[in-house]
Amino acid sequence: MGGYYCLFLFLLVCFLLGIHGSHSMNQTCNPTDLEALLAFSNGLDRKGVRVVGWGPDTACCSWTGVSCEFGRVIRLDLSNKSLHGGISSAITLLDGLMTLNLSRNSLHGQLPEGLGRLARLRILDLSMNVLSGMFRGSEGGFPAIEVVNVSFNQFTGPHPAFPCAMNLTVLDISSNAFSADINTTALCATPIRALQLSGNDFSGEVPAGFGLCRMLADLSIDGSGLTGNLPSDLYTISGLRRLSLRENQLSGSLSKDLGNFSQLMHVDLSYNMFSGIIPDVFGGLKRLEFLNLASNSLNGTLPASLSLCPMLRVINLRNNSLSGEIATDFNMLPRLNVLDAGSNMLSGHIPPGLMWCTELRTLNLGRNKLDGEIPESFKNLRSLSRFSLVSNSFTNLSSALRILQHLPKLTSLVLTKNFHGGETMPMDGLSGFKSLQVLVLANCALSGTIQPWLQSLKSLRVLDISWNKLNGKIPPWLGTMNNLFYIDLSNNSFSGELPESFTQMESLISSSYSREHASIKDLPLFIKKNPADKGLQYNHVSSFPPSLILSNNLLVGPVLPGLGHLMDLHVLDLSWNNFSGRIPNELSNMLSLELLNFSQNDLNGSIPSSLTKLNFLSKFDVSYNNLTGDIPTGGQFSTFPNESFVGNAALCLLQDGSCSGKAPFLEPGNEQQGGTDTTLPAMTYITVEVGFVFGLLAVWNILFFCKGLEGCAFSDG
Question: What is the C-alpha end-to-end distance of the chain, expressed in Å?
Fold first, then answer.
């Protein structure tokens, strides 16, 4: 009987709601409301899309985005309707309005002055527009307001505070240009629960007074220019669940009072200037899920009490000065997804207890002082996708690969600058890595040859084994790996000719092929000219520049004309080898090419004039060959300096307009082609960073003419 009764009540409610909805849809709205809506519509720019479904009838309660109650408009929701223009002051005549949502449009100009007089307005959402000027009316208006979101606009002046709004619980003013001090007295006069103040131009220190916000659960003031220490009363907000103050200039030490936040679930204090030790007070933070203290000046050891936070999913302590061994009891952190302790001074071995973190997806321990071998227990990390140990002192590469091959979800493996004890490239016993897309074994002093097991990595897209002691011929099967689009074999001792198969690489022939097969997400890749350079960021593997980098080896033979088939190749670097013959005309078909480096070879003949068709070519170097004739003119060739052509005895100077064929085209003060290190530009670094992303995609002009790329490493950002 209870079940039938519940069903009856459900059907009755649906019936009544249907009657109410039908009544609302058919009723004729109040004449004043109708006039206000028409004035609002008429105030929109002609270039914008007018509100679809409005007019000409007077039943405005049935119009798009309009809801009524007893003939009065109570809700106006026109979010994401491609509206342009200003907000008409007539909207303030809708005195029955309870919800106003104009978010995600292109509205501009200032707010109408009387907006705060809407006495029944509870929800105001104007986010993601181009509104500007000061936000008026918040001081004494909006008496019923509960939620305000004006984020992602261009408002200026003091921030709105709504001290008379006794029901305000959510205020989001992030990503504007509000300035001056934060008025905690006014903000905390309401029962505010969520304050989103990030991305503004506030000045000075984090003010005292947030402790008066007794109901506050979420406080975010990221990237707002704040300085100084955190005020002590901040730690008295016992109900705080989320605290984010990243990307400011906050300093001082972290207080032991951090342990007072018993309800805290998310804390992000990254990219500040905090110093001193991390207080060992996490035992009371049983609900903590996210901890980010990256890029500060913190020192000391990892706090042991982190083990007492069973809900932890993310620990990011990257780019500090933490030292000592990793003594965390990972057996008590079964939910851990991300552990990033890269770029510190941690020492000792990798703790075998990490095996208990079966949900771990990202592990970065790069740029520390760790040593030993990868534990056998790592076979249990079945969820691990991204793994970096760059720049440590690990040994036994063969054992490491035999263990890691059992991880079915591993997509990125970066082991740069390890294994310097004279190890050889592992030859057999490897058949896993079915999901691996990025493999970096650069600068590991490896000897031997490219081994056949690599051809079983069918998903591989990025291969960097540069700066080793590898030798032998480049195997033809390497050019048949159809997903591979970034290859760096530079700075080894490979010999023989470049296999013809490299002219048929599917992912370098068609960009659509590369994009179609891309699957790694949220893996920012960086090109760095040197360790101090921030580099250029690529947020996905698929956006990384397709490259073939074979510089500084012992390769011989011709430059293959078939390389012209690689229409999606962005970087071709064959410098510092022994290639001979002519530069093929067919290379002019490589329309995506941005860098072409043939320097320090034995090429002859003229530079094909057809290369002027390469409109994206920003770096070109054929110095120190045996080229003759005129340098092509037009196109990008008008931008290349003389240094790109020096060391060719019979190549005509660009400025002369004619060729004598007598005087060698040599760079002043550098008349030898010898292979001394002093003639080489600085090495370039490729870095791979997992985690928090900064910056935008850029043009590939950071890659200077270098003899090779040193390898991949997780970056400090």
Answer: 64
